[in-house]
Design brief:
Distance between the termini: 34 Å
Number of domains: 2
Structural class: mainly alpha
Strand content: under 5%
Helix content: over 70%
């Protein structure tokens, strides 16, 4: 990755900086969607004791914890390239922040289709490695599912089915939720999985072959909103999912969800991108 080639986050806001102690103070709100734990030096030592392969690269554990926190600060303020660089600099323990930053950047800011797909594959590869070394980390599985799911959306249905990507995404999301049942973002993604399968192959085949159902999709979206009521992306994906699963009959509800998403107050760069997406869709 060459940082100079990454596009700049277009909505810079001092409120997204979270310098010093502000990061820890606001962590619960910032990570209500993904349940990522805040790690200081002591927490990182405990994590590495459980998963020795996560040992920090070229830094003491305390120094790596500082770098990890700085990577998350960069992510939250929208400096996604910096977040990736800092995360990768400390090895496997920085993969979650690097992967989330890559996934969000590729989803919203990268316009080149090949570059976008390459970024998702890079992220998925790192996440897969992390699941092999630390399979109890919910976000190792989630960011793998997120990257692979976004990649699948960018290629043909035939290719995605041939490569079994849907099954891999579903398995990773199931692992995420089994480890962390309150992972709102995983519930959003699982709802989207059910909706996309039904949309692509129909309710009957989707149910028989892929275990997809409208009822399960709605339940996952509703669960996500209960777990993270501030989430704009939960509303956006729920709206899209309703139309995919039920058709035009759900357009009024979908529109209301988009309006709610546009009105959500963003706490960081990702949430701002979500809200701006909702606004742009309403304008169209």
């Amino acid at each position: 990755m060459a940082k100079a080639r990454w596009k700049v986050f277009p909505y810079a806001d001092a409120g997204y900086a979270y310098a010093g102690a502000a990061l820890k103070a606001h962590w619960s709100r910032l990570h209500r969607g993904d349940c990522e734990p805040y790690l200081d030096g002591a927490g990182l030592k405990q994590l590495i004791a459980r998963h020795p392969q996560l040992e920090a690269s070229n830094q003491s554990i305390d120094a790596a914890a500082v770098t990890l926190q700085d990577a998350w600060r960069a992510y939250h303020r929208g400096d996604f390239a910096e977040a990736v660089e800092l995360g990768l600099a400390i090895g496997l323990i920085g993969y979650n922040v690097a992967n989330k930053a890559t996934n969000i950047y590729a989803t919203y800011l990268e316009k080149g289709e090949k570059a976008k797909l390459d970024l998702f594959l890079q992220s998925a590869g790192r996440a897969e490695r992390l699941t092999e070394c630390a399979g109890t980390l919910a976000n190792a599985w989630y960011f793998y599912a997120q990257a692979l799911g976004r990649y699948s959306q960018g290629i043909s249905v035939v290719k995605a089915l041939a490569e079994g990507l849907g099954g891999k995404v579903k398995h990773a999301l199931e692992q995420t939720i089994a480890i962390e049942p309150r992972h709102a973002d995983a519930h959003i993604a699982m709802g989207t999985y059910h909706a996309e399968v039904i949309n692509k192959v129909g309710a009957m085949l989707g149910g028989l072959t892929y275990g997809a159902s409208r009822e399960a999709g709605v339940k996952h979206f509703e669960t996500a909103l209960k777990l993270n009521p501030h989430s704009a992306i939960a509303r956006i994906e729920y709206a899209n999912g309703l139309v995919m699963m039920f058709g035009e009959a759900k357009l009024p509800q979908a529109t209301r969800l988009y309006q709610e998403a546009a009105a959500c107050a963003p706490a960081d760069a990702m949430e701002r991108l979500d809200a701006e997406l909702a606004k742009s869709e309403l304008e169209d």
